[in-house]
Amino acid sequence: MGRMKTLTPEARRAARVALYEDLEAGRLDIAATVRRMREITGMTQEAFGEKVAGVSRLTLAQIERGEGNPTLETLEKVGHAFGLTVRFVRRGDE
Prior knowledge:
0% strand
């Protein structure tokens, strides 16, 4: 496995802001959001799953690939460290 790139504190803050902006604009799905959150932390799937989200590496990998069927509880755990919650949002095309 390759090493994760460590961001400077300034780059990490900018990446979080960009993540939140992309979420607000509806440009990200769950898989891309989780992957970006993990990349911002600079952690591997195993470390992020265990230390941040309290889920297995396999579960996190499935979420990042858009596979599996994570429970709402699992998604809430994953989003918690970034102040995110799972909710219904109105789609812009309706």
